Amino acid sequence: MGKHAVIAIFLPKRYSGSMKIAIVGLPNVGKSTLFNALTRSQVLAANYPFATIEPNVGIVPVPDARLAKLAALYTDPGSGRAPKIVPATVTFVDVAGLVRGASEGQGLGNQFLAHIRECDAVCQVVRAFDDDNVTHVDDRVNPLADIQTINTELILADLQAVDRRLAKVRKDAAQRRLVAELEKARAALDAGELLGSRRDLDTEMLRELQLFTLKPFVFAFNVSEAGLSDAPRRAELAALVSPAPSVVVCAKVEASLSELPPDEASELLRELGQEESGLDALARAGQQALRLQSFLTAGPKEVRAWTIPIGATAPQAAGAIHTDFERGFIRAEVVGYGDLLAAGSLAAARAGGKVRSEGRDYVMRPDDVVEFRFNV
Ligand code: GDP
What we know:
Elements: E1 19-24, H1 31-39, E2 56-61, H2 65-73, E3 84-86, E4 89-94, H3 109-117, E5 121-127, H4 143-169, H5 176-190, H6 203-206, E6 217-222, H7 231-241, E7 246-249, H8 251-259, H9 262-271, H10 278-289, E8 292-298, E9 302-309, H11 314-321, H12 323-327, E10 329-336, H13 337-343, H14 346-351, E11 356-358, E12 368-374
Parallel strand pairs: 1-4, 1-5, 3-9, 5-6, 6-7
Antiparallel strand pairs: 2-4, 8-9, 10-11, 10-12
Helix pairs in contact: 1-8, 4-5, 8-9
Bound molecules: guanosine-5'-diphosphate.
């Protein structure tokens, strides 16, 4: 994307709950097919624009192989009772097809844009499969041109939001700094730039505008089945949007996978030469785009992955579990996932000196298995 490169600079101060990602894309690129696979729910997937009128929400687990291993560690050998596994989740919101002119109210226009505004990140589904039976709104399959169409609509919508705010605050002497920031943003948008790629903006100050092009983007290229194992093609697509994270999926394959029992789904993936499903990769890429990471808690009742911003401290991580934990934070007992697994139990890890006691300033690492000590 060259100068349109998207860099995720938006980092929520505090992250709670499931990250919310808007699925957008031109009509007929495979959004509904992909979303159906996501939720195994039946959203109308049809070969015409605006098939999906109402936004639909699907909450999916972030795949994490560590959880099953930890659960095995904490399974009671006598009773065979295993802890409950609670993965981190991503919430996908399927928003209806974006068309050229959406920022001016074409298609579903403003209603559509309002749904994206509420999300933490934007996943653009981009058509990269050939199929003469499936019409393309612009009569040609061209991933880069499609991305530019969508970006242009988002830029135009941001421009309107910035102008509206400017009109309100321009004459207010107390808002001089905001006005300057808005003017800067306006100039960038006017030049066709996504605000996320600008490093000179005070994103904190602009946050309340919920601008689209300040949100992290992740791209899902919908390829044909054969395209899945086409390494040069995959690299070419990824390069179109780099450094933004992207995944290559085949929506039709994802639809089949979602209908199969787990062992048969693994078999199909193996036959296709894939290590994981496109949806698993997408959930992970979403986490990456939002600059989030997981940490783990484990015990005989429950093993669980929690989501926090990269760079969060131990008390902030405690706050992801419960605000009282953050307020009353004393210290965190931390063991690396690998160390815990190698030791075979928390007691053995402790005896081996692998359990650390960390204080308020400790910055969480993604492989931390944690127990918090706190006052209530
Ligand atoms: P949306 O408008 O973006 O939600 O697109 P849909 O998911 O409704 O898909 C539009 C049409 O494209 C449907 O007929 C799908 O069956 C078809 N389609 C979606 N994904 C693929 C794919 O990976 N390969 C092929 N050949 N067709 C697909």
